[in-house]
């Protein structure tokens, strides 16, 4: 398939710029596998779509305050987005400046902290924190790295609303946004229903927002993201299968984590980088149902959900969502997708 097969026209006013007043207040478009046409619903309908013995798999990553601002010795302004922490005082980062800084140069931050550029790895710069740790620097002056399509600076509300309630392992530069809809009462209702719960970790990188730059998808190089699937989660999935329950991934990051851990045909614990590119033609091994938000046109995430629920069905559902005024992307509405039988 070609990149253009995943294009749709999105009016800018449908891109959610702020979260709703309540986490669970979103609308939810349902493709349950029984018919091609989507059904309009609300997120609070979720318990009626689940069954006892189903297993929800959440991504427990936590978003770092990864955006920093400083200046070069020449006075030029610099914006830094920490991509990955390598050690307490070492990181890989995206660095934006009017002129690309050279290895060995110093970036001065607002509170006097200093970062030294020590090299490059592809598009990323290697940074060394001088007489500090990145945890200290980010806690003092880091900003929540809102996605590029949110056209405003981060504010105090984003500190909590751009994190899931269950976020526990810091390391992401973007939230696993399907999980943002879950509040404490919803989690309690699902537990009382008999729906199980497991967690994976995938630290979402800035690459998730990078466009596909080639028309032929066979030539696309997928960005790498670090993930971990534990033995406990593998065991919970095995027990769910034995009891006849379904595996329900909360977000594309949970899908990617589980499918990576089962890449050789058997689900096993996994810890490391994944470049798994899921697109139409992929055969899913683990996930039966997916809860997700809406995704950018021509993005790898739109390709993933198309592989899961069917390209034509997904594109029809997206056009329906646009016509009905759904809210899109990170702070937007949700979709409930049942895997098509031939996927």
Q: Can you tell me about this structure?
A:
By secondary structure, the protein is an alpha/beta fold. It is built from eight helices and 17 strands. The chain folds into two domains: 3-63 and 159-338, QueA-like; 67-141, Thrombin, subunit H, CATH 2.40.10. 21% of the residues lie in helices and 28% in strands. The strands form three sheets. It has a nine-stranded mixed sheet with strand order 2-1-17-16-14-3-12-13-15. Helix 7 crosses helix 8 (311-323). The two termini are 16 Å apart. Its EC number is 2.4.99.17.
The low-confidence runs, each spanning 5 or more residues with pLDDT under 50, are none
Number of strands: 17
| CATH class category label of the largest domain | Alpha Beta
Main β-sheet, spatial strand arrangement: 2-1-17-16-14-3-12-13-15
Q: What's the helical proportion of residues?
A: 10-25%
Q: Under CATH, the topology of the largest domain is which?
A: QueA-like
The portion of residues forming beta strands comes to 25-35%
**What is the N-to-C succession of helices and strands?**
EEHEEEEEEEEHHEHEEHEHEEHHE
Per CATH, the architecture of the largest domain is: 3-Layer(aba) Sandwich
State the shape. Answer: globular
Number of helices: 8
- Tell me the distance between the termini: 16 Å
Helical/strand content category: alpha/beta
Q: How many individual domains? A: 2
What value does the average pLDDT take?
A: 96
Radius of gyration: 20 Å
CATH superfamily of the largest domain: QueA-like
How is the main sheet built?
Answer: 9 strands, mixed
